[in-house]
Design goal:
With 254 residues, the protein is α+β, with helices and mostly antiparallel strands. A 7-stranded antiparallel β-sheet has the order 7-8-13-9-10-11-12. Strand 9 and strand 10 form a beta hairpin. The two termini are 22 Å apart. The radius of gyration is 20 Å and the shape is elongated. It folds into 2 domains: 59 residues, 434 Repressor (Amino-terminal Domain) (Orthogonal Bundle); 169 residues, Umud Fragment, subunit A, CATH 2.10.109.10. The longest helix is centred in the N-terminal third of the chain and has 11 residues. Keywords: DNA-binding, Transcription, Transcription regulation.
């Protein structure tokens, strides 16, 4: 089993954060993280809690109690942290959490909880789905964590939401079935962006390419749908937002 320092270095590198950047986020002296990773020093439990929050993992993973690096999540969409607090739809947030516009919740310096939309509104990677209720607060069921730098700019009028994916046609584009995708309508849509799209009221996940005033909507299995200018004008096809994060299937852990 890897040591604390090895696990810390591995999860830090996966997050794309340098050791000096992590020092700044934790407000510790330069070189401190490198000494932790080398096993020359060990942080206190409060600092380990801060490390877990900042790196979107759990204290249990950093301490070698589990090999699963994900935060402790539950099937009902709530998020349980090492202190035992559970964040759900109607939770009163402890002081460590900060309410943000659009129903978002901030944790520590760099983690945002994005409300999950009820699974009955799951977008399909292929075929028909159900009507998407992006702005329906009543449909929110728990939260999905994401690093704020991935989320990008936020429009409170059209806030980010997380959706459960049904279907496998986008697997090769990094969207497996039963995953949760975080969708941000405020993100600029560039050619080749993976997006949540409504086609005739049915939500689907597609890779989007602008084409002649319309769009080509591609799946990784080779299927392609053309949406022309009239489809957009009459809102038969709507680009809901860009997928900025994908989380794998969450298993129940008490």
């Amino acid at each position: 089993m890897n040591s604390f320092g090895e696990r810390l270095r591995e999860i830090r590198e996966k997050q794309g954060i340098t050791s000096n950047e992590l020092c700044s986020l934790l407000n510790v002296a330069s070189g401190t993280v490198s000494r932790w990773e080398a096993g020359k020093r060990e942080p206190g439990i409060e600092t380990i809690n801060s490390l877990a929050t900042t790196l979107n993992t759990s204290v249990a993973y950093l301490m070698g109690e589990t090999d699963d690096p994900r935060p402790i999540l539950r099937l009902d969409g709530t998020m349980k942290f090492d202190g035992g607090s559970v964040i759900g739809k109607d939770t009163e947030y402890p002081s460590v959490y900060k309410k943000l516009p659009g129903g978002l919740v901030g944790i520590g310096p760099d983690i945002i909880l994005v409300p999950r939309v009820s699974e009955q509104y799951s977008p399909h990677c292929g075929g028909s789905g159900h009507t998407t209720y992006l702005d329906d607060d009543a449909a929110a069921e728990g939260y999905e964590p994401i690093v704020s730098c991935l989320l990008g700019d936020i429009d409170a009028a059209k806030p980010p939401r997380a959706y459960k994916v049904d279907g496998s046609s986008m697997v090769d584009y990094g969207v497996p079935p039963d995953s949760w995708v975080v969708v941000n309508p405020a993100q600029w849509i560039t050619a080749g962006a993976v997006c949540l799209v409504e086609i005739g009221g049915n939500p689907v996940i597609k890779k989007v390419y602008p084409k002649g005033g319309g769009y080509e909507l591609h799946a990784s299995n080779g299927q392609m749908i053309k949406a022309d200018k009239e489809d957009l004008e009459y809102e038969y096809v709507r680009i809901i937002g860009k997928v900025v994060g994908v989380q794998g299937t969450v298993d129940h852990r008490p």
